[in-house]
């Protein structure tokens, strides 16, 4: 537990260091100029990775929801409560990122004056700010969360299939990064937007697992203490 907490904290410090060092602008300048982002409407990041990635993510989320009652494949390894946790965690992660985005003032790179837009830059940590050009609602990265939202599978599969849990985690993180980088190259997000989206989805999945595991443990204890109490009762 403490190792996981330490790794989570270290990742946050790395992401903050990336921002402080100007990593976002350095990487964005590789893809965009004062005239905009050349790859903004390219078929690969736009139609395939953006449009197609979103459809695939929702299809997988739907499959997990249906799998709560009709489990197939590895879902059969999970109990009903764990399948509910997995499907619910995906939906909660997407909702959390969408809610945070709607309240954030930071604009997307392609809307900034430095890349041909009209919005002035503002730190995504200044949630109360009202920058010139209007609030951008671009942090954290929503499209990347379509991959990161599945991180919760690591926690639900870990007790019954540790190897599968690790592969699930790698796949979810890789999918989130791929979708995030594609959006970065289009000018839709800075890299920190993607990194924090993944960090938030990880924290939510971890917290949800802690709450659910405690509830499962209490329910299990009551189920086993009930018959014993009944036998002991005169």
Structure description:
The protein has 234 residues and is mostly helical. The protein has a domain at 76-104 and 139-221. It is 65% helix and 2% strand. It has 8 helices and 2 strands. The chain has helices spanning 2-20, 23-31, 43-67, 80-103, 145-148, 153-157, 162-186, 191-232; strands at 32-33, 36-37. The protein has a two-stranded antiparallel ribbon with strand order 1-2. Strand 1 (32-33) and strand 2 (36-37) form a beta hairpin. The longest helix is centred in the last third of the chain and has 42 residues, at 191-232. It is elongated. The model is unreliable at 228-234 (pLDDT under 50).
**Contiguous uncertain segments of 5+ residues:** 228-234
Briefly note the structural class of the backbone: mainly alpha
Mean pLDDT metric: 93
Total E-strand runs = 2
How big a fraction of the residues is strand? under 5%
Cα Rg: 21 Å
N-to-C series of helices and strands: HHEEHHHHHH
Helix content: 55-70%
For the largest beta sheet, what order do the strands appear in spatially? Answer: 1-2
């Amino acid at each position: 537990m403490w190792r996981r907490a330490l790794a989570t904290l270290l990742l946050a410090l790395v992401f903050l260091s990336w921002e402080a060092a100007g990593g976002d602008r350095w990487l964005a300048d590789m893809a965009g100029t004062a005239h905009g982002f050349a790859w903004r409407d390219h078929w690969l990041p736009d139609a395939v990775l953006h449009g197609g990635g979103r459809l695939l993510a929702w299809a997988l989320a739907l499959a997990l929801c249906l799998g709560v009652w009709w489990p197939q494949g590895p879902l059969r390894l999970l109990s009903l409560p764990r399948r509910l946790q997995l499907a619910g965690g995906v939906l909660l992660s997407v909702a959390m990122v969408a809610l945070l985005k709607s309240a954030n003032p930071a604009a997307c790179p392609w809307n900034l004056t430095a890349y041909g837009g009209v919005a002035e830059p503002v730190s995504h940590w200044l949630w109360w700010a009202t920058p010139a050009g209007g609030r951008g609602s671009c942090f954290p990265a929503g499209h990347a969360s379509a991959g990161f939202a599945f991180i919760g599978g690591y926690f639900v599969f870990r007790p019954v299939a540790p190897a599968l849990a690790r592969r699930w985690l790698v796949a979810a993180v890789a999918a989130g990064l791929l979708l995030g980088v594609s959006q970065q190259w289009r000018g839709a997000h800075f890299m920190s937007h993607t990194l924090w989206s993944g960090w938030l989805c990880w924290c939510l999945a971890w917290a949800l697992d802690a709450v659910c595991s405690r509830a499962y443990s209490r329910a299990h204890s009551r189920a086993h203490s009930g018959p014993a109490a009944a036998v002991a009762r005169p």
